[in-house]
Amino acid sequence: MKTNQMFRRLAGSVAVSLGVLAGATVPMDHAWGEPSSSEYRSQYLARVESRYVDTDLARFHYTRTGTGPPVVLVAGGGLWGYSWRDVIPALAADHTVYAVDLPSQGFTELHRADFAYTLPAMSQAIATFLDAVGLGRAAIVGHSWGGAWSLYFAQRYPDRVERLALLDSPGLDAEKAPVTPLFTTPLLGELATNLTTRSFYAESIRGTFHNKHLVTDEVIDELYAPFSRPANRTGFLSLWRNLDFRLTDTGLAGVSAPTLILWGAQDSWLPPSQADALAARIPDATATILPGCGHTVHEDCPAQTIPLLTSFLR
């Protein structure tokens, strides 16, 4: 299902719910209810070594694989470390690979209720994680929002980034994902977040793939289960409303790390033209647009994406 079709279905459900609430006598602050969480138990975590590290900010969940120079993988919004399942084994042949869940992702648990879910806050979360696992400097690979957080981290902490890879990552003050108005509008956003059932989530994930047959039931179960946690839903909505890409846009010329930008030619969330626009403004950057690939390029097209990443990081 295309992104705009998914948007219309979810918006229609929101509209119906708003109509019900408008005619109801219950107070609005009790109208949302508690979104249900999936009881699915990750099979992926049974196959990898799941780790945690405690900080004042959060108890970070991550995996560590391989040996060699460190690479940190940062998944996109609404995703978690499972998103890198095909990338990790390839990179681990030459690197120590850390796949971290940042606040709102996976199995990381915040210790601070006042966390801001802004670019500065997410950048600081990356710094906090690196400190906690003893990494002064690392290569960083980020996808989508995870790429935007990584880009801002590279702007704020240039001495800590060896190399930077951005996969379909917003960083320009430019066109945003089509569903943005749904989540950024007061009231609508809260309803949309709570109404994101497994089936709606599945439609959203399929919209980020060009090769939709790769979005299996296992993929949806693994991704949806942690997203369905109330704290992660709340953080996800806050990110929609608080990420200000004017901050990354104004600092592009200051990125000193060699930068690889990969983008799916069939990305229906962000136009592929943004890849070249980013590369033109980052001093040491190259952009490659991959045909037949969607927004989640490393999962949608691992055979094309992984060799480019391994070559760049090596």
Summarize this entry quickly.
It contains 13 helices and nine strands.
- Using the CA coordinates, give the radius of gyration: 19 Å
Q: Specify the number of helices.
A: 13
Structural shape: globular
Counting helices, strands and paired strands, the structural category is: alpha/beta
Instruction: Please mark out the parts with pLDDT under 50 across 5 or more consecutive residues, or reply none.
Output: 11-32
Mean pLDDT: 91
Distance N to C terminus: 37 Å
Q: What is the count of β-strands?
A: 9
Percentage beta strand: 15-25%
Q: Biggest β-sheet, characterized?
A: 9 strands, mixed
Q: In sequence order, what are the helices and strands, one letter per element?
A: HEEEHEEHEHEHHHHHHEHEHH
**Share of helix, binned:** 40-55%
Topology of this protein?
Layout: H1 3-22, E1 50-54, E2 58-65, E3 70-74, H2 87-91, E4 96-100, E5 109-110, H3 119-132, E6 138-143, H4 145-156, E7 161-167, H5 180-184, H6 188-194, H7 198-206, H8 217-227, H9 230-242, H10 246-250, E8 259-264, H11 273-281, E9 285-290, H12 297-300, H13 302-313
Parallel strand pairs: 3-4, 3-6, 6-7, 7-8, 8-9
Antiparallel strand pairs: 1-2, 2-4, 2-5
Helix pairs in contact: 3-4, 6-9
